[in-house]
Amino acid sequence: MSTYLPTLKQLQYLVALQDSGHFGRAADACFVTQSTLSAGIRELESLIGVTLVERTRRVVRFTPLGSRIADKARRVLREAEELGDLARAAGKPLSGDLRMGVIPTIAPFLLPRLLPKLRERWPDLKLYLREETSTAACDSLHRGHTDCVLLALPYSCGDVDVAELFDDRLYVAFPAKDGAQTPARVTPDAIDERHLLLLEDGHCLKDHALAACNRPELRAEAAMMGTSLHTLVQMVANGLGTTLLPKMALDAGILDHTAIVARPLDADHPSRQIALVWRKNSPREKEFKLLADLFREERAAKVA
């Protein structure tokens, strides 16, 4: 076994540089000076005897071997972090830091009700939230930036464990002036693709809505894309078209003080499944299951 091994700090510097592609931003992420980070990476290169990063005035470029070592370093750092998780999980559950990713079509509608419950039940828990699209949230999970993710299924998030929480039905929303001519439920074939407003690419709710409607042409014919559900609601309120909204957004009052009507989507699969996911074999699995139980309790209380 070699007497000289890379330090976790050196590996942290390397991973931060790979993530940011910039020495200054990587140093900021590690809370050190740029010269300290640069020196740490040079020490790592000297230690293992290879060049990991090609440096120019404008570009930071990892060598092929540097990229492989950075990926391995990421796994080593995650394993080291899980040493602390093992000790924490064996002691008081849901205490200390927990980093949770949440997608934008869930965060503003579910968390305001849940966070007070979390503080009440586990006062020693320090929950750090990271709002990202599904793709970015799953990437953050596997990179070790977050411990678990609250997202909507179906969605391929890689090798994860899943706790399904509840179904979240989709509704068709349109200006109230059109309500008199609309049945209590709306079938997919009744949706006019020329006036359909959807979230922009990257939001899984867009894919869930299109899958529920089972009309492939809607993807190409959608009139306009919105950056958030609140933006879509404003478009509908101004008579620009029709959109699809999840039940949790309606329950949270997204249509309050608007002249918009929402009707359930009458389709074979009219819902998305809200779930909590985490990396396979995480030492905090029991804690995540406790969180999932609370989410289910809160949803059941809301429905009741």
Automatic annotation (TrEMBL):
Keyword check for Transcription regulation: yes
Coiled-coil stretches: none
Gene Ontology molecular function, alphabetical: DNA binding; DNA-binding transcription factor activity
Pfam families tied to this protein: HTH_1, LysR_substrate
Alphabetical UniProt keywords: DNA-binding, Transcription, Transcription regulation
Domain of life: Bacteria
HTH lysR-type domain boundaries: 6-63
InterPro entries membership: LysR_HTH_N, LysR_subst-bd, WH-like_DNA-bd_sf, WH_DNA-bd_sf
A GO cellular component entry from the record: protein-DNA complex
Family from the record: Belongs to the LysR transcriptional regulatory family.
Descriptive protein name: Transcriptional regulator
Organism of origin: Sphingomonas jatrophae
Phylogenetic lineage: Bacteria, Pseudomonadati, Pseudomonadota, Alphaproteobacteria, Sphingomonadales
